[in-house]
C-alpha cells in the first residue's frame, strides 16, 4: 500500500477496496511517507498477528516509536481521507485527465492507475532533456534512471494532486506536448 491509500477505491481505502477484496486480506502493510505525509510505516491485522509481530519482529523490537508529531500527522491525514471523499473523487478525475492527455499525445504512462504517473521516455539523454525542458517551464518533475530501473526504461515521474485544477493539468499537458515534439519523442 505505497501508492494506493488515499488514491484507489471509491473512498480511497486502497488496493483492497479498488479490487473489491474488503475483508479478504489478512495483513495490511504500507508507508506513511507518500499520500500520508509523515514518516515510517504501518502493519495492521488481527490481534494475534499484531501480538506475534510485537514479540518476534527484530525491527520492531530494536526500533523506536514514531515521534508524536509524525503519528498526529498520519492520523490527521487518515481523517481527511475518511471525512472528505470529494478529494478522492477529484484526484481520480485529475489522474484520468492527465494520463488520457499524455496517452493521446503518444506518451506511454505504463498503465499506471495511481497518482504517481510514470512517463516512459527510454534513453537517459532524452529523459534528462525532457525533464529539464519541463522543469524550465515551472513544472517540477523527477527523472527515474538506471540503475534504479532497467536500462532503456528511463522515465519521468509525475505526481498528480487532488488540488490541481483542470487548468493546471492542461497547462502541464501543453508543456509536455511542446517539449515532446521538440525532442521528437511524440
TrEMBL record:
Its cofactor is pyridoxal 5'-phosphate. This is Aminotransferase class I/classII large domain-containing protein. GO terms for molecular function: pyridoxal phosphate binding; transferase activity. The keyword Transferase applies. Pfam families: Aminotran_1_2. Gene3D superfamilies: Aspartate Aminotransferase, domain 1 (3.90.1150.10), Type I PLP-dependent aspartate aminotransferase-like (Major domain) (3.40.640.10). The keyword Transferase applies. Keywords: Transferase. Signal peptide: none annotated.
